[in-house]
């Protein structure tokens, strides 16, 4: 299919577009049709009356309906497990089954949701207080916040919460909110959590809105709070423990109301979860501007955060929680995939990891992505995990292919897998240090790449389990004898480094995965520093990702707002075709030396992402909204966005991208945040549908500033223009900053970009020699 | 004249506009004509050939020419003093003399400047290194930066500086920059300081530019670096000790080059002084986006700043330095005037301070404005100053009217002035504590209002001089015996509070002027806390200004880019007329109770500013660019901007406004910065010509986040639309935030604004009673 699509894209679409156009003709009012997978073997029916397409096979459709009207209080843990199983099956079988057209039942159900939404989402804070929903034990809930209130802050928290409600409810709510404060350390306003519908991303035309952009944002918010997506959905936390969409359910209701009534002449202003209101603007302006956790820098301690969060005046939006564009674990799988591919390229000089062994540890949370990423890279991947429950979960989810216990068995399995060049992910139930020490004494070097993803941000309270103790023994000791446990952790880290050093001296390549492994090892006095006082091993952020970011490559995500999985297939195919076409086109037209050099480097990155996007569907990583991630550079993003916009016409692709402050800048500017702020503001007037600026991403409150945006591609020429202008800026700003910081890849990338656009004029650095600097430094001595 | 102008504005201009229009007709190409004071007694000539108007009386014109070609290395301190005297005379006599048309000499001189600019400003970093300019002793220079370099940071600073230059110059420049680092703690690149022209705000059409907005920004930058305006012009510091426009002269040259070549399809991106480059955008986008000192919050210590500044990767832009809109001491005179007027209103219940006595201290730096402000308020003002040089300077400048030494003499003079209701400013040469203690024992209460503006941010190193020691004794002791000096300061503060307490108990009203007076007094264990553990006296920021800001009133500045003082007169008159008209109109149409309440409060603020603008000219506060400041609210700013834009047509009014994070919010959000960031981004897509976001204003690095903008009013309908949309947002965002924080004035103001614009929909707070909160808090006990 890809070659046909490519042809059509090149020619001005003849095969695809007329069909889409006719669809559009039938549903201009709702306007939310996405292009379909015309070349697949699926049948499909466009529901012209409702204006959105529906196709899923029978089983999943039943499941779908069930979810739509799912009442949480009749939920049980088993039921959820069943549903998860069902959906996993569904996603596996979806493309192998002939899909039937939508039944009228589905229409009716969505009509009901539409009806509910048209009443509830437009109502804002309800005029009468709803019943208190039952506490749902089957859903994970946030732990109690670590805050001690003074009388003043306690009352302030309640006073601030009450300002959302008329005074007739104050007496009742004050007591209730005080109760929440005492029990949970925060006022979530559970009473306002909606129960007449399940919170999840519905097809976009179900949302009541006066402009399509607003409906798209509603969908994204619902996805971030979907119980299948969010970490603590009832506490409005999407991920990362405290990455919030809102501070409380009143803000949720108020924001949806504003979105339901906003026009293209207004902009909704979000102050750290609080919807300040709608302000007159214009159609070219963002529909929503989000700031999260913006604080005066010297008042950005963790204690400040706890107080500001508890009193409802700020939230920690992480990166994609408070900007409404979280797409589940797929992002981390992709990031890990790219890291491993580039590690192979950089450290082993190979483009294919088949037959190479990658060993690491950790299968909980984000580290759980390692097995899947290793498989997408074609490697033999071994991940050690001490916690059997976590290990089983990943296995059950299909994120790991085999489980091995015992070192002899592991060594046997490794040898066989290497020999046969198997593509396999193996979970080892036990301690990673045992693996390293065993491999260090094997005659044959059985591992090419090594890393570690234990949670060393938190080494003494369960983030790291020392070798020699069982999981249970560790859990006991860390509570009962924390000093001894700390000793054990440090001893374990020293042994781990020792074995890694041995393997490294024999040719293994090891890198730090940004989990403070090297830092904690150095604190444990492990032999991890070189003679210059630097770490012996590189950090992936700096050594691997930095080079990639410098080329302008970074995360590019999109969501198919129809909620239709085949739309996602189509966009995957379009993206793959565009990447192929770009690799060819760029090579052909590269004239200057700089451009040629840049094209060569970029081609490898494009290739990795091509490999990713081709395999992505089969790895079943979609949870919640139908979303995809890949990395691309400025020309790539612009071309993909243009192709989506063109191919879609009256359909829609939303491409939220989050750009982070990153390392690998050599000019001492690593703690500056000008780039993030410039991106945010520059996107805002170049056409973003919404923009967001956050204090702290994965690195924690006060530890970074990052900006992001969402862009609605609705098939109009205007959307195409916006995408082109904004995506060019967004990427090239980051590249410029890296170029100015003397990053060679970035200098090539920005020089190449200037060759193509004479309106782009960027200051480039001259490089000074060490000799000159030495002379200047010694001059005065 | 004002009534005539008002009539014309109301009717659609018939008297004024045709004249302007005809002017416009003659100079479309240069396009930088401002409206003139047609109703004054001045003659005027429009120079059609050059496209800009010129009129000054003969003497000042000579002075003007002299300045244009002034070579600094032939400068002497005396000459500067003479020039200042001359200009002071000029500004005093200007409006009382019939002004002649411009001579051809002037045209020729400006032609020369234009020629020089067309070569130098467009060149950027020169291809050959210019001669090192001579060190100019007559100009104040920044003290050496307080930084200790490591070898790494020392070399990094040089490496970063060298990146602006091709490698053939590196050997020479590295030695030179190392020398600057050792001598000054910073690399200013003195060699690149321009010497073929004097840096100052020239008439706008002298600047080489492809778009008018860029030329306007050039003018503003030049004004900020004018030696008559800037604190340390050669170190690129405009005010506040380290409020920088750039980090070095290479950045200056590069930015002017970019501005000279930019089109309306590009945006210049400024990263903390560094011009990153021109990026494609569109005519509706800002021409320049400035971020200064944006850092990751947890890396915002003073030491971080020193290192980042020294290595050239960040600057402290203060508020108006790094955003190119400093207008000299006028701003602080206005702020002090408004404060004193509102103190009289709030604390004394009077609208006229005639016959009331205001006593304070400090005549250096910003505190120097107190005498002039007191006079504009019609009060009897006494300012104590221990430093005779500072006191003499203010007297010579005409900022103080009389000098008194000796307490008996002061008391005599005070009694007389009170009795005669004199409008007079008196400098007392001596210690403020002596005054307070003497007045405390006088039978008659001789003072109604009291404050203090000693530099208590820096109490032990010259910011405060203790009573009982002479100025010289203090200077000696703080160096030779700092511990004893500290004791003396604290004892002095205790005595000062004691006397103030006595006077307050008898009816004097005292307030803290934001100079940490109360804080340091409490640290000195002075009797300054009430029974609840709060300060006994209010802070002006919270108690006085907060109420004003809540109404939406805040600084509104404009610059007449023709450089013509009569243009400023005209705009003063237009502003005064608009204020009158608004007071009337608002009162007439106030229908709801809220609106009536809001109008009543606003009227008082409008009246203060009317009094200010009527008197402003006579107080001779214009230094550098022809600029004015006043406070207004959203309707006021929009109306004034519209009137300027309309009245000007093809002339130009530039209205930079800086909005600060302020106090007086009751919901615990005082340390959040969402509002500042929202203002910055919201202005950017609503039509600002440039926007800026800063870390730290007057409060210091890391202590605030504040945003600002500049807007070019060029008389086009587009400019009018932008002004209306942006000024509405900019003010009402701040008001919304204060309203949400339960500030009553702000609630009234935003409610009134919503009544007038149905597109504005703002979340308003419900107020909770203390009883409800008490019950909730006790509930669990």
Automatic annotation (TrEMBL), chains A, B:
<dbReference type="GO" id="GO:0019556">
    <property type="term" value="P:L-histidine catabolic process to glutamate and formamide"/>
</dbReference>
<keyword id="KW-1133">Transmembrane helix</keyword>
<protein>
    <recommendedName>
        <fullName>urocanate hydratase</fullName>
        <ecNumber>4.2.1.49</ecNumber>
    </recommendedName>
</protein>
<feature type="domain" description="Urocanase Rossmann-like">
    <location>
        <begin position="328"/>
        <end position="544"/>
    </location>
</feature>
<keyword id="KW-0812">Transmembrane</keyword>
<dbReference type="InterPro" id="IPR035085">
    <property type="entry name" value="Urocanase_Rossmann-like"/>
</dbReference>
<dbReference type="InterPro" id="IPR023637">
    <property type="entry name" value="Urocanase-like"/>
</dbReference>
<dbReference type="Pfam" id="PF17392">
    <property type="entry name" value="Urocanase_C"/>
</dbReference>
<keyword id="KW-0472">Membrane</keyword>
<feature type="transmembrane region" description="Helical">
    <location>
        <begin position="12"/>
        <end position="35"/>
    </location>
</feature>
<dbReference type="Pfam" id="PF17391">
    <property type="entry name" value="Urocanase_N"/>
</dbReference>
<dbReference type="InterPro" id="IPR055351">
    <property type="entry name" value="Urocanase"/>
</dbReference>
<dbReference type="InterPro" id="IPR035401">
    <property type="entry name" value="Urocanase_C"/>
</dbReference>
<keyword id="KW-0520">NAD</keyword>
<dbReference type="InterPro" id="IPR035400">
    <property type="entry name" value="Urocanase_N"/>
</dbReference>
<dbReference type="InterPro" id="IPR036190">
    <property type="entry name" value="Urocanase_sf"/>
</dbReference>
<keyword id="KW-0369">Histidine metabolism</keyword>
<feature type="domain" description="Urocanase C-terminal">
    <location>
        <begin position="547"/>
        <end position="750"/>
    </location>
</feature>
<dbReference type="GO" id="GO:0016153">
    <property type="term" value="F:urocanate hydratase activity"/>
</dbReference>
<dbReference type="InterPro" id="IPR038364">
    <property type="entry name" value="Urocanase_central_sf"/>
</dbReference>
<feature type="domain" description="Urocanase N-terminal">
    <location>
        <begin position="199"/>
        <end position="325"/>
    </location>
</feature>
<dbReference type="GO" id="GO:0019557">
    <property type="term" value="P:L-histidine catabolic process to glutamate and formate"/>
</dbReference>
<comment type="pathway">
    <text>Amino-acid degradation; L-histidine degradation into L-glutamate; N-formimidoyl-L-glutamate from L-histidine: step 2/3.</text>
</comment>
<keyword id="KW-0456">Lyase</keyword>
<comment type="similarity">
    <text>Belongs to the urocanase family.</text>
</comment>
<dbReference type="Pfam" id="PF01175">
    <property type="entry name" value="Urocanase"/>
</dbReference>
């Amino acid at each position: 299919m890809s070659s046909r699509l490519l042809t059509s894209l090149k020619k001005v679409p003849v095969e695809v577009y007329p069909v889409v156009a006719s669809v559009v003709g039938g549903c201009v009012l709702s306007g939310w049709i996405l292009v379909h997978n015309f070349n697949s073997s699926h049948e499909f029916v466009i529901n012209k009356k409702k204006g959105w397409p529906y196709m899923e096979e029978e089983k999943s459709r039943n499941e779908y309906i069930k979810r739509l009207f799912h009442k949480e209080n009749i939920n049980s843990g088993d039921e959820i497990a069943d549903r998860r199983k069902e959906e996993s099956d569904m996603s596996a079988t979806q493309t192998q089954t002939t899909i039937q057209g939508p039944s009228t039942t589905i229409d009716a159900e969505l009509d009901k949701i539409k009806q509910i939404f048209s009443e509830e989402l437009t109502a804002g804070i309800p005029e009468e207080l709803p019943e208190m929903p039952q506490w749902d034990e089957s859903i994970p809930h946030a732990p109690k916040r670590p805050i001690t209130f003074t009388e003043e802050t306690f009352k302030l928290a309640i006073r601030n919460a009450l300002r959302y409600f008329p005074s007739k409810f104050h007496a009742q709510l004050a007591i209730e909110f005080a109760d929440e404060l005492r029990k949970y350390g925060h006022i979530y306003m559970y009473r306002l959590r909606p129960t007449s519908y399940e919170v999840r991303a519905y097809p976009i035309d179900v949302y009541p809105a006066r402009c399509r952009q607003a409906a798209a944002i509603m969908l994204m918010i619902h996805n971030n709070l979907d119980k299948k997506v969010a970490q603590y959905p009832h506490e409005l936390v999407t991920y990362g423990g405290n990455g919030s969409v809102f501070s409380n359910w009143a803000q949720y209701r108020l924001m949806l109301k504003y979105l339901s009534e906003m026009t293209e002449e207004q902009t909704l202003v979000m102050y750290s979860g609080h919807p300040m209101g709608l302000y007159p603007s214009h159609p070219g302006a963002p529909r929503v501007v989000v700031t999260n956790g913006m604080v005066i820098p010297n008042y950005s301690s963790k204690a400040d955060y706890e107080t500001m969060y508890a009193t409802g005046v700020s939230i920690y939006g992480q990166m994609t929680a408070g900007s409404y564009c979280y797409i589940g674990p797929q992002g981390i799988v992709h990031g890990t995939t790219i890291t491993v591919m580039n590690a192979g390229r950089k450290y082993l000089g190979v483009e294919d990891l088949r037959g190479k062994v990658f060993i690491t540890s950790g299968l909980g949370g984000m580290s759980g992505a390692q097995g899947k990423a290793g498989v997408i890279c074609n490697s033999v991947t071994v991940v050690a995990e001490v916690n059997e429950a976590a290990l089983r979960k990943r296995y059950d989810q299909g994120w790991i292919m085999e489980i091995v216990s015992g070192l002899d068995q592991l060594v046997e399995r490794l040898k066989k897998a290497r020999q046969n060049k198997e593509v396999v992910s193996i979970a080892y139930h036990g301690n990673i240090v045992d693996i390293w020490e065993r491999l260090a004494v094997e005659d044959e070097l059985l591992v090419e790449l090594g890393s570690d993803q234990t949670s060393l941000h938190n080494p003494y309270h369960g983030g790291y389990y020392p070798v020699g103790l069982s999981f249970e023994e560790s859990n006991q000791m860390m509570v009962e004898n924390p000093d001894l446990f700390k000793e054990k952790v440090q001893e374990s880290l020293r042994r781990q480094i020792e074995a890694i050093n041995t393997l490294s001296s024999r040719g293994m390549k090891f890198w730090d995965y940004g989990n403070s492994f090297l830092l904690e090892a150095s604190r444990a006095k492990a032999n991890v520093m070189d003679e210059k006082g630097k770490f012996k091993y590189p950090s992936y952020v700096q050594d691997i990702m930095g080079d990639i970011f410098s080329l302008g490559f970074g995360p590019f995500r999109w969501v198919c707002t129809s909620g239709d999985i085949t739309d996602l297939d189509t966009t995957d195919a379009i993206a793959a075709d565009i990447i192929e076409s770009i690799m060819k086109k760029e090579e052909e037209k590269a004239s200057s030396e700089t451009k040629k050099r840049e094209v060569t480097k970029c081609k490898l990155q494009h290739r990795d992402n091509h490999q990713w996007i081709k395999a992505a569907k089969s790895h079943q990583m979609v949870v919640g909204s139908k979303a995809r991630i890949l990395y691309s550079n400025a020309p790539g993003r612009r071309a993909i966005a243009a192709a989506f916009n063109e191919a879609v016409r009256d359909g829609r692709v939303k491409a939220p991208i989050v750009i982070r402050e990153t390392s690998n800048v050599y000019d001492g500017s690593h703690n500056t945040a000008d780039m993030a702020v410039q991106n945010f503001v520059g996107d805002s007037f170049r056409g973003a549908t919404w923009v967001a600026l956050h204090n702290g991403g994965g690195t924690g409150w006060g530890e970074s500033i990052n900006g992001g945006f969402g862009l609605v591609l609705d098939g109009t020429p205007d959307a195409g223009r916006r995408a082109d202008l904004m995506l060019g800026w967004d990427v090239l700003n980051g590249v410029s900053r890296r170029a100015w910081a003397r990053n060679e890849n970035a200098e090539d990338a920005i020089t190449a970009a200037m060759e193509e656009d004479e309106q782009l004029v960027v200051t480039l650095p001259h490089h000074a020699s060490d000799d000159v600097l030495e002379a200047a430094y010694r001059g005065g001595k």
